[in-house]
């Protein structure tokens, strides 16, 4: 009887944890071939992306190299982007892999499976809020977090002249008062304090105004009342 192949699409928190568990239980004993498919070669835990966005997290130190991790946990990592599924033939269609200059490294190809797990995760929902999709940064991936970080640092760099301090007020809007939005607000104040101390910018916390926009009557709904109360107190201290 041939060894069954279990393909997991998506190396986020769920997909990586499942590949690791199946690799240790089935892959190690050769009872199944475990394949983890993702377009990226590294994994960064999504709840930490706000720290990457503000420069608090060093991605090179906190990310997981999927190739090395796979060899240590008895599954096989394959890089690729899913473009289609043939359920009748149990086959995945993968896009070509291109290098940084747009040249093809691997052509489009197919990957057969016996069992398929879709763990592609989720993206932020703007709920149709006007202007959000066109003008806001989203922090759903390391690439988006780094793009936010570049824009944030460039914005602060524009104010390196201490003479501008009296004439500048930087306003930052965060749409969404969940855990990520609240933590991002706190990290922005910490980042501005650090950049000011290092002489990167003349702006300090007195010149920064962070607006946390939430449709619900309170931030972090679903948290315990005591936690929400302490959160409000902390936000008032930053305000």
From TrEMBL:
Keywords: FAD, Flavoprotein, NAD, Oxidoreductase
Cited InterPro entries: FAD/NAD-bd_sf (IPR036188), FAD/NAD-binding_dom (IPR023753), NDH-2 (IPR045024)
Keyword Oxidoreductase: yes
Top-rank taxon: Bacteria
Gene3D superfamilies attached to this UniProt entry: 3.50.50.100
Residue ranges of domain FAD/NAD(P)-binding in the record: 5-235
Family per similarity comment: Belongs to the NADH dehydrogenase family.
Protein name stated in the entry: FAD/NAD(P)-binding domain-containing protein
